[in-house]
Amino acid sequence: MMKRPDWDEYFMQIADLVATRSTCLRRQVGALLVKEKNILATGYNGVPTGITHCEVTGCLREQLNVPSGERHELCRGLHAEQNAIIQAAKHGANISGSTLYCTDSPCIICSKMLINAGVVAVVFRRGYPDKLSLEMLSEAGIKAQQYKGDSAK
Q1: Report field, pTM of the whole predicted structure over 0.85
Q2: Residues annotated as part of the active site
Q3: Distance between CA 2 and CA 74 in Å, rounded?
Q4: Beta bridge partners of 151
């Protein structure tokens, strides 16, 4: 008999699938916003709609030797969390009270957006070199936890 995944495993598997749409050359990230076990929006990291993908232009961050977790403005793309928030807004989904499932821990910019959007919990698979991000989530009362339910990907 096939093992049925619990809700966290199910949503993390979907985040992994969403990440496969990423066009980032450095890190493929997928995110989804969930409320009452319903997916409200998904997002993956990549350039805005209609903009030439980095696989064509090259990675600006690589060209400038920008370390991961620093100088987020030096990138042509949006983060997966940002795209999930934008998709929710574009389609009129109220994400206040939702949980973010993401393949990676949010950066500080995404954390500030999640706080103001009313997200109440964050579940992520991999860490990210941004301690301030998790500190601010905690201070805002947002439960952030690393998912360890299945084998790390």
Answers
A1: yes
A2: 81
A3: 45
A4: none
